[in-house]
Amino acid sequence: MTYCVAVRVDQGLVMLSDTRTNAGMDNIARFRKSFTYSVAGERAITLMCSGNLSITQGVKAMLGRAIKDSQLDPDIESILNCATMHRVAQLVGDAMCEMQHHYRSTIEMQGSGADASILVAGQRRGGKQRLYLVYSAGNFIEATEDTPFFQIGEHKYGKPILDRIVRRETTLEDATKAVLVSMDSTLRSNLSVGMPLDLTVIERDQFDFRVRTRIEADNEEFQLLSLGWSAALRKGFEDLPNVLG
Amino acid sequence: MTYCVAVRVDQGLVMLSDTRTNAGMDNIARFRKSFTYSVAGERAITLMCSGNLSITQGVKAMLGRAIKDSQLDPDIESILNCATMHRVAQLVGDAMCEMQHHYRSTIEMQGSGADASILVAGQRRGGKQRLYLVYSAGNFIEATEDTPFFQIGEHKYGKPILDRIVRRETTLEDATKAVLVSMDSTLRSNLSVGMPLDLTVIERDQFDFRVRTRIEADNEEFQLLSLGWSAALRKGFEDLPNVLG
């Protein structure tokens, strides 16, 4: 499985994904699920993928080919030259549609699932920061003020902390802490989600990545956060009143 | 959906269930999912059910009929007169099998799911305290020292706190707090799980219920626990080091 989470707060966008992929319990591999695209000072975009890996890799290949082709022929539309973030989501959705159209029936004939979903987060100069969730059918929804985060993959373990912490006015620092804590809970409770992690932070109106880093299993800051959270939970739990009289 | 959680620690057994049942998002009802059976000073048993309601109600009816019949004819075996807790789990599994055999194919023809699972927890005089999970096929597994808790239904939201807190040496007080906190996280993140709750506590070697109570939405102790946990999480989160430098 997979766990990807993206948050849109007033100050910017935070995206975090794990790297574990499995085809059955005995076939575990490591694949990057976060992909970044940028034109410095003009736009910065992160995609995060879950679901059938052949489908999402195909979508990525199509988007990449359009970017390459557009360098030779500027009339060709790509996620790096299209007009708006909304159009970026459409292009991702269109590529998803094409992959599903081509492979879905044969994948399902083999008894596998072809579903996939992709989070699209970013901002282009002249537009607002946007966060979209693109479904298998190519349709998509946008994160709003009421729902400032999206999760794909194994989302349930890490949802309670996001429900409690993340609001649109949450700082970028707290949003980053929140997605890391959310991931930490998921890593502890579900073997199909695994280190290392890929973290991207896009500050509002900067049109570039403030953070674009891989967090390895031995990363000291993440370990401190994880241990600190464990200790805080334990302490908080101990301090709770006893219900059993 | 449903969320039921049962913990077996050295000091005893703790069982907690919600009461929300739904057939689609627009058809929500309230049904008890915890059922208790006892012969004072000899045995105390709690069953908790999830899955297809007609199946689990049918299982419960069969178990109840055997108890009634055995009062007239002591040769008839029931969960209140059978030899061991292991045999109790077998009887529950046998009833499950019979219900599945009778209804599964017709239920599935209608496009519904017939799956169900039942947690069986208790102790009889002369035996150890036991916790079993009975599947749709009537087969079952037992909680061991390595895995001192079972969850059925919407289990993911509330798993992280159990993973961190519950060990076989956890006190009965802490185990009770832990299942309530686990339920609180689930209630906040999933609409298909709802108040009121049914809590049962069986202390080791007492062969009776120490607690057998319904916790309503306005229960002050539960509200305090819930608020306390919220505050502890928030405080713990604030105290975590910033990762975004």
Helix count, DSSP H or I runs of 4 or more residues of chain A: 5
Shape of chain A: globular
So, CATH architecture of chain A? Answer: 4-Layer Sandwich
Most extensive chain interface and residues per partner: A-B, 43 and 43 residues
Class inferred from helices and paired strands of chain A: alpha+beta
Rg calc of chain A: 19 Å
CATH class categorisation of chain A? Alpha Beta
What features would you describe in this structure?
2 copies of one chain form a homodimer. Chain A is an alpha+beta fold and 245 residues long. Chain A has one domain (3-234): Aminohydrolase, N-terminal nucleophile (Ntn) domain (Glutamine Phosphoribosylpyrophosphate, subunit 1, domain 1, 4-Layer Sandwich). Chain A is built from 5 helices and 12 strands. Chain A has helices at 53-72, 85-109, 159-165, 172-189, 220-239; strands at residues 3-9, 12-17, 20-22, 28-30, 34-39, 43-51, 116-124, 130-134, 140-142, 149-153, 197-203, 211-215. The longest helix of chain A is centred in the middle third of the chain and has 25 residues, at 85-109. The radius of gyration of chain A is 19 Å and the shape is globular. The A-B interface holds A 154, 156-157, 159-161, 163-165, 172-174, 176-178, 180-181, 185, 188-190, 201, 210-211, 221-222, 224-225, 228-230, 232-237, 239-244 and B 154, 156-157, 159-161, 163-165, 172-174, 176-178, 180-181, 185, 188-190, 201, 210-211, 221-222, 224-225, 228-230, 232-237, 239-244.
